[in-house]
Automatic annotation (TrEMBL):
Pfam family, one: SLBB_2
GO-annotated biological processes: monoatomic ion transport
Source organism of the structure: Stenotrophomonas humi
Domain of life: Bacteria
Family: Belongs to the BexD/CtrA/VexA family.
UniProt entry keywords in alphabetical sequence: Cell outer membrane, Ion transport, Lipoprotein, Membrane, Palmitate, Polysaccharide transport, Porin, Signal, Sugar transport, Transmembrane, Transmembrane beta strand, Transport
A single cellular component GO annotation: cell outer membrane
Protein's name in the database: Capsular biosynthesis protein
Alphabetized GO MF terms: polysaccharide transmembrane transporter activity; porin activity
UniProt xrefs under InterPro entries: Poly_export, Poly_export_N, SLBB_dom
Length: 334
């Protein structure tokens, strides 16, 4: 059952097992974007900037023209900006857009005019044409190359020099083809399929900082204030516990509220979830109700039993409500 407060600024929603089940189902449905799960990487195709090592067996003068003293990288063949590379005897060879296997077949066919039954091998020395970018809570912005081995989201984050003490893996933003997907890597890493999110060239990954992941506990609790949390989620009971619990002499166990504000409470009502915590069973419900970054937990004083009186007490916290909504909107937008 839902009710509205003064001027429709607040919408009251009881916290029940049914509500928890509905919210959990909604989170699970969106925790792994279907658009990402359907992508399968194609075989690696050579591009401008890549450096290849081309071996012609029994012909070291072609493999390492300057002799065995030449460094391996110096013997590499750079793919030029026009997508070609130069090779002795056959001159410019189109390389961009081909797999290493296809390029090997082309070079073999062209060298066969000059060498009897050439045996050619093409391998990659340097990957430079395809990459993804990782920013945010990494030690420095990183460009991670895509190689012949498909690159997953987890691999890219681990290779970017992620600062594990600051990174929030439950709110990763992956931008692909102009669309941003929010991914809870903590949650989907438990799923065999979800753990293999393959990346495309030019994907952009933003890992948010943990210092923006907090909830607020105010009212009749022993230690009110802002609470940071490092895990993927924090429950209502955990937040109350970290606030050292309710004040036994002044708090009303029937007046525990979770405020999930909107950007403009005059236009869109703030959602307020109500927990009746007088019975022990209520704390079992509270342990399953997950808070979101920016939520405000409010514990009313004893004697505030009517909804109208609660609204009058709550409305002075409108600045906190707006700040909660702004915090969550900022997190969603990064």
């Amino acid at each position: 059952m839902q009710s509205r407060g003064n001027d429709d600024q607040i919408e009251l929603i009881p916290i029940t097992l049914k509500l928890i089940a509905m919210e959990r189902a909604e989170r699970d449905a969106f925790s792994f974007p279907v658009a990402l799960s359907s992508y399968q990487p194609m075989p690696y195709r050579i591009g401008a900037g890549d450096i290849l090592y081309i071996t012609v067996w029994d012909h070291p003068e072609l493999t390492v023209p300057a002799g065995p003293q030449q460094q391996l990288n110096a013997a590499g063949r750079l793919v030029q900006s026009d997508g070609t590379l130069f090779y002795p005897y056959i001159g410019k060879v189109p390389a961009a857009g081909k797999t290493p296997g296809q390029l090997r077949e082309d070079i073999t066919a062209k060298l066969a005019r000059y060498i009897e039954a050439p045996q050619v091998d093409v391998s990659m020395l340097t990957y430079a044409s395809q990459r993804v970018w990782v920013t945010g809570a990494s030690r420095q912005p990183a460009a991670v190359p895509i190689t012949v081995t498909p690159l997953t989201l987890a691999d890219a984050i681990s290779q970017s020099g992620l600062d594990s003490t600051q990174a929030d893996l439950s709110g990763i933003r992956l931008t692909r083809d102009g669309i941003t997907h929010v991914i809870d890597l903590d949650r989907i890493s438990q799923d065999r399929v979800g753990a293999n999110i393959y990346l495309k060239p030019a994907d952009q990954i933003y890992v948010p900082y943990l210092d923006r992941k907090e909830v607020f506990v105010v009212g009749e609790v022993a230690q009110p204030g802002a609470l940071n949390f490092r895990t993927g989620n924090i429950s209502l009971s955990q937040a109350l516990g970290r606030a050292r619990g309710l004040l036994q002499t002044t708090s009303n166990g029937n007046a525990i509220y979770v405020i999930r504000g909107s950007g403009d409470v005059q236009q869109v009502p703030a959602r307020v979830f109500h927990l009746e915590a007088r019975s022990p069973a209520a704390f079992a419900v509270a342990s399953q109700f997950e808070l979101l970054p920016g939520d405000v937990v409010f514990v009313g004083a004893a004697g505030v039993t009517r909804w109208s009186r609660f609204v009058n007490q709550l409305l002075p916290f409108s600045a906190v409500i707006s700040n909660a909504a702004s915090t969550r909107n900022d997190l969603d937008g990064n």
